[in-house]
Design a protein that fits this description.
single chain; 112 residues; 0% helix; 3-stranded antiparallel beta sheet; 4-stranded antiparallel beta sheet; mainly beta
Amino acid sequence: VMKKKPQALVKHHMIPSSSSCDHWVTSVTTLPFTDLLASGSSDGFINLWKCGDSFRSLEHLCSIPVCGFVNCLSFSKKGNILIAGIGQEHKSGRWWKNKDCKNGIILIPLSS
């Protein structure tokens, strides 16, 4: 079994929330042939990141507010839309439930 070290690590990048639980990353996607990536969790935000030189650092670009758990992320083929699958519950279990949110898909237009 091969074990690899991470290329970049962002410590304690969390948006303060009213709950006392930690929010781990549940979905990550990249836009091919660019330095852009997106991550999502249960904290109510999708974060956009820029990879630094040689992929050794990450720079936080912006946070997009959403209601619910970010269970899936994908960029469109043209790269002009970020598609997010949002749910009331985590995709891998029923540890928490956010009844204020609805399951669905969000299309987020991106400008170049």
